[in-house]
Amino acid sequence: MIRLVLAALRARRAQTWTVLALAVIAVAGAVGAPWYVLASARSATANEVSAAPTQERAVSVSHDTRLGGGDTPAGALADLRSAVEHAFQVPDGHPVLSLYQLGDASLPHGLLALQVAYRDGVCAHLTLAGACPRAVNEVAVSRRTAELTGLDVGGVLTVAPRLINGSMALQVVGVYDVDVHEAYWAGSPLVNVPPDGAGNPLGDPVFTVLDTFAAQPGLAAPTVRYDLAVPEPVLRGGSDLAARLDAAAYELHQQGLNLDTQVRALVDRIARDQGSVRVGVVAGAAQLLALCWFALYLAGRYTARDRRGDVALLKLRGAGRRRILRLIAGQAAAPVLAGVVPGAALGYLAARSLAGPVDDPSTVREAAALSAVALAVAVLGALVALIVAELGTLRAPVAVLLRRIPPRRHGFRLGRWGSTRITGAGVADLVLVAVAVAGVYQARAQGGTAAPGLALLAPGLVALALALLLARLVGRVAGRVGGWGLRTGRLRVALGALQVARRPGTDRVFALLVIAVAVLGTAADGWSAGAAARTDRAAVDLGAPRVLTVRARNQEHLLGAVRAADPGGRSAMAVVVSTSGSQGSPPTLAVDSERLARVASWRPEYGPAAAITAALRPTVPPALAVSGAAVTVEAGADAPDLQLSATVENRVTGVATRLTFGPLAPGRATYRAALSGCTSGDGCRLVSLQVSGPTGPGGNLTPPKPGGTVTVYGLGQLGPNRPVATGSVLGDVRRWRPVVASAGMGLTIASHPGVLTLTVSTAQVPDRQRADLRAFVADSPVPVPAILAGPPPSAWAATDPVLSPFGGSTVPVRVVRTVPVLPMLGTRGVLLDLESAIRGAGTGGAGTTLQVWLTRDAPPSIVDGLRKAGLIVLSDDSAPAREARLAGEGPAASQRFQLLTALLGLLLAAAAVTVAAAVERTPRATELADLRTQGLPARTARAVASRGYAVLTVLGVLAGLLATVVAQWLADVRLPLFVDSWATLPPPGGPRPGALLLAGLAAAMVLGVAAWAAARALVRRLR
Q: Is pTM beyond 0.85 here?
């Protein structure tokens, strides 16, 4: 028996090698799918974790405590850690413990709320100028706090703790910068904090040692906090991690501790990511196996036709049906089983190269078990397909087996429909068409979402049904064309068409070609749509081809540094983003609008670029420039102890300097204050004038008494000598505006010919009310023009629209245009001009991100110029890098696998053509030789031999592309393109002509090579 099997396999080498190749492809797809799923899921998890903000990975537990009576700061931290770790254990976790208490520090125009804080190992995660605090009452302050308070290393910061009366003096030993994106800061409320509920800025923390909390009575009511960034391996726990967090939250709540985390949202996103990989890969693997079994069935049918004489001889010699079945099964099983080892190795290596390794032992065991099951299914399905293909030969009588032309399939009569007969294959076709109709119905009922069920397979089912119908139609049309060719004497056309019409099994080969091309077209279209969507999202999310996140002293420093680094304005643009919003306000994006159209990745959804730029930058009076070594003020006051302060700001560095004049005397006098840092470069600009009381301890200004009035007669500068604000400017009330305040003491600004008067309101002010008695130079449009995306805030319906673009002072805005989408902000937000926002709201504030947008071809010298100007680059992102991160998500991994399986399906179709050609080669060559004997010209015979398979291939490719278009028109079902269901822009519609063209070219190349090889072999045999 074994010798007979081996002899039969050697006699039909082409068929044997083709079946072996088909088996290898089937096994590779089945074995590689689990490894690809698990490796892609791990990569997707790592991608989600790396792309997620640190706050989304944090688990934080906090509570307010009271020190004293034996309770020490160290003991409070130890108790909290013990309670949390009893409720929630995290392997390889690195928790960070902290204490902090809110207090107020005095500013020139009010108070700054800040946290006095201790945090484990904080100095290792700060960029310090100076020293790390090591002794009691030593602190490190942020650069922003140092600028706001006018302090530096060696200064004394006076803080009045809240909840406890009194104040404390803290020695500044260091000034720090911090990278808030570091995992160390996950969950910490101490950095990048938004404004408080009243819109007042909350300053950066001042860090000190733990002993300061024990030594200072004012710090006896701190908040104790436990922060932990959950490691990536733990995040893969999915629902188990969420359940553990819920249990821990309940247990800690019983002890009066509050657990706060956004990890559940990240875990849900990871689960959706992994689920999209599983669904997409399983669908792709199922399609590949179905195509492979179909191809094996066709290969078995054609091989069975070639073995009809062998089976007839065995029956004539008395071999029983079981013996013949064992012989046939052996011939079918040998190449399939031989393909197991190379197929499994190929599948594993392909999955590893495409998705990366699987290293975790438990995951390796899971992948191996799933691969074993998939391997068994693939091999069993292949054997069943091959044996089923042989059953017709096994049942046929000897007389039928010895016929060169098989008999017509009779089928059965259907009802009263006359002579209409339906075969078993016809019944199967009708069933498949019915299933396809059900899939289309379900897909349309679900709105095109890729939910489990027939809807997910609807496009493939439609393509299959259409392929079967076209296969039957092609046979009939070919028969008609062949008859027409014979009648008109066109022998090449006639013989080629009759070959397609009369060869048994040609319709199934054609159907396989159509299905393979349709699957490839669908996969290519999905891959193209996904790539286009990732490109669109990267452009919208970033706003520009390249984005630097930077640290600057303030917004003015950012704007000036970018303009100095790129004076032509063609490659760089300063941007400030505030995505938090406050009091129901939408997020804001402030840009240097004159450069917007040249630097940003502009899209039609943002509106016309020229109109947007013109709307954001109307004509405004020029700024009041200061470029001297001293400033003079001619002024007087009608109340004692009143002072006048002028704030000037460097146009490039953003450094603000406060000059104080007074106490002012009654009448008219000239006062002078020295100024440095404004005589070079672009100089400085006058920002505001401020009325205050006497200078208090530490150089801080005290609030003035209500009712006093300051009259300003002139502003000038010395060295060089020239006026800064003439009488026409001082006497024009339109050139001055107060700060936008919600309540409390304010400033009344009035003008008379040639003079400006500033009167303090008589309203009573609570001790902790931030009173801002400044008159700003109106060198920007007020209200500030704004471009709005999405609905306006509900608060704007009752009051004038105001925004806090930098998380501090508010500014009135005027919506000049609405658009559907804004860069970075999406479908909800406000676009402002950065310079106008700075002039209107001032600098400072918290909760904002400073960025520099660059064009794709921005020279490296611009980044060097930014660093020379004092900017610190925190991160460097680009559109290609963002697209690569998006390509690491589950939907993109599924699209890649489906495209790979579609290409393998194309190889399966080419193999089916090869088998059909190998079986038909001898009888086809005999037929053409007989026709040559009867007078058919040799040139015509060669043309018929070489073009028959080419015609079938061309028709199959065209029909496959048609099936792709029809399938997507009837059931356009796609997996989600993004895990978070991002829908700022509508998904690319299909079918996409470019993708279909590439799919058609690939199919024509692969199938054309198979058809060319088959035709060449037939022509060689004919010769």
A: no
**Is residue 9 over pLDDT 70?**
no
385 and 435: one domain?
A: no
Q: Which of 825, 206, 144 is nearest to 543 (CA)?
A: 825
Rounded CA gap, 393 and 307, in Å? 8
Question: In the structure, what pLDDT confidence band is assigned to residue 497 with cuts at 50, 70 and 90?
Answer: confident
Residue 190 pairs in a beta bridge with none
Q: Tokens for 241?
A: 């991690």
Q: DSSP labels for 897-935?
A: HHHHHHHHHHHHHHHHHHHHHHHHHHHHHHHHHHHHHTT
Beta strands in 754-804 (DSSP E): 755-760, 774-777, 784-789, 802-803
| Amino acid residing at 505 | G
What per-residue confidence (pLDDT) applies to 192? 46
Range of 514's domain?
A: 414-542+878-1023
600: confidence class by pLDDT, cuts 50, 70, 90? very high
Locate 810 and state its tokens: 């508010």
Interatomic CA distance for residues 548 and 878, integer angstroms = 9
Residue 598 CB neighbour total at 10 angstroms: 16
- Do the Cβ atoms of 724 and 686 come closer than 8 Å? yes
Strands 546-551 and 849-854: antiparallel
Instruction: Check whether residue 715 and residue 826 sit in a common domain.
Output: no
Q: Are 141 and 117 in contact (CB under 8 A)?
A: no
Considering only CA atoms, which of 561, 577, 531 is closest in space to residue 823?
577
In 341-363, which positions are buried (b, 16+ CB within 10 angstroms) versus exposed (e)? eebbebbbebbeebbeebeeeeb
Q: Into how many domains does the chain fold?
A: 5
Question: For the residues of 223-283, what is the DSSP string, one character each?
Answer: EEEEEEE--HHHHTTTHHHHHHHHHHHHHHHHTT-EEEE-HHHHHHHHHHHHHHHHHHHHH
| CA 285 distance to own-chain centroid | 26
3-state secondary structure of 829: strand
Q: How far apart are the first and last CA of the chain?
A: 37
Q: Which among 315, 339, 319, 337 has a CA at the least distance from the CA of 402? A: 315
Query: Which range is most confident: 388-392, 752-756, 780-784?
Result: 752-756
Q: Enter the DSSP assignment of 695.
A: B
The answer to whether residue 521 is domain-embedded is yes
pLDDT in tens, 426-438: 666 666 667 667 6
Q: State how far the Cα of 615 lies from the Cα of 350, in Å rounded to an integer.
A: 55
Same domain, 264 and 379: yes
* Residues 974 and 450: beta-carbon distance below 8 Å: yes
CB neighbour burial string for 774-813, b if at least 16 within 10 angstroms, e if fewer: bbbbbbbbbbbbbbbbbeebeebeeeebbbbbbbbbbbbb
Nearest to 188 by CA among 174, 208, 204: 204
Residue 548 lies in a domain: no
Residue 111 has pLDDT above 80, yes or no: no
Q: What is the largest CA-CA distance in the chain?
A: 135
Alpha-carbon gap, residue 646 to 399, rounded angstroms: 113
Which amino acid is it at 593?
A: S
DSSP state of 217: G
Within a domain: residue 74? no
